[in-house]
UniProtKB/TrEMBL annotation:
Keywords: DNA-binding. This is MerR family transcriptional regulator. GO terms for molecular function: DNA binding; DNA-binding transcription factor activity. It comes from Streptomyces albus. PANTHER family: MERR FAMILY REGULATORY PROTEIN, REDOX-CYCLING DRUG-SENSING TRANSCRIPTIONAL ACTIVATOR SOXR. SUPFAM superfamilies: Putative DNA-binding domain. The keyword Metal-binding does not apply. SMART domains: HTH_MERR (SM00422). Residues 1-68 form the HTH merR-type domain.
């Protein structure tokens, strides 16, 4: 199918499909006249790419995962890698909650020791 048909069938813009190719997330064959042609499995690949973007993954990370997609479908290897990614996200969340707790403690201590009427200016370097 041509790029316009793939765009229509997936709800993704032609521009996005071209970007996916530039990022090595999607491949096409070229006709003798230079037109892009995609296999039927490209529909599943595009939908998966969209889901991974919606999950917050970067194009670089998605490109690492795409070899684990066969005929537009996830393989067990992809599911394993996604589970690893989820574990890393959970660790970042834990770390951020800890940082937030430390900031709350600093804010509380600073509030208890606050000077009234004092002003604070941010110094900027030029």
């Amino acid at each position: 199918m041509r790029v316009g048909e793939l765009a229509a069938r997936t709800g993704v813009s032609v521009r996005s499909l071209r970007y996916y190719e530039q990022q090595h997330l999607l491949t096409s064959e070229r006709s003798p006249s230079g037109q892009r042609h995609y296999s039927e499995s490209a529909i599943g690949q595009v939908r998966l790419i969209q889901q991974l973007y919606a999950a917050g993954l970067s194009s670089k990370k998605i490109a690492e995962f795409m070899p684990c997609v066969v005929d537009g479908r996830a393989t067990p290897a992809l599911l394993e890698r996604l589970a690893e990614e989820r574990t890393q996200v959970e660790q970042r969340i834990t770390d951020l909650v800890e940082v937030r707790g430390r900031l709350d403690a600093v804010i509380t201590a600073a509030t208890d020791n606050m000077l009234t009427g004092a002003s604070c200016r941010r110094e900027t370097s030029t």
